[in-house]
Amino acid sequence: MPPIKLTLVVAVALIDTDNRILLAQRPEGKQLAGLWEFPGGKVEPGERPEETLIRELREELGIAVKEPCLAPLTFASYPYETFHLLMPLYVCRRWDGFVQPLEGQALKWVKAQELRSYPMPPADEPLIPFLVDLLGP
Length: 137
Ligand SMILES: Nc1nc2c([nH]c(=O)n2[C@H]2C[C@H](O)[C@@H](COP(=O)(O)OP(=O)(O)OP(=O)(O)O)O2)c(=O)[nH]1
Description:
Blueprint: E1 6-14, E2 21-25, E3 36-37, E4 40-42, H1 49-61, E5 71-79, E6 84-92, E7 107-110, H2 128-135
Parallel strand pairs: 1-6
Antiparallel strand pairs: 1-4, 2-3, 2-7, 5-6
The structure holds 8-OXO-2'-deoxyguanosine-5'-triphosphate (8DG).
């Protein structure tokens, strides 16, 4: 068996004042294209996960998030074919600026109980009940 490549990705459920969660659609041409995911990305060398998230949210969505506004909720651990994904999921209800699709990605605000209607990467499916518990149906 080849050694496992562990990949650390950090993601966030942004929650608006109606308790809806932001999903972003993975662009064509990327792995898992077309699936709906939580904003975030790979932790780069030398970064703390919270710094990664703040950077990704600025680059992808044009919003400014302060570190104390990121609350850990749960995590995903999933064996993709070429790497093992470890993905902490934070929750964030406060940010500055307006969410914009700066990378051309489709965005949707959805209720927790609607998450199952959006095809998500297999790693994300076990995260849904935590959001339903947190936010109610
Ligand atoms: N951001 C995010 N990534 C997720 C989720 N679920 C899930 O399996 N992933 C996977 C998809 C990718 O393999 C990886 C995130 O990497 P990424 O978005 O930063 O990078 P990428 O695939 O675009 O690749 P790259 O071009 O940056 O190398 O984590 C999720 O909910 N949010």
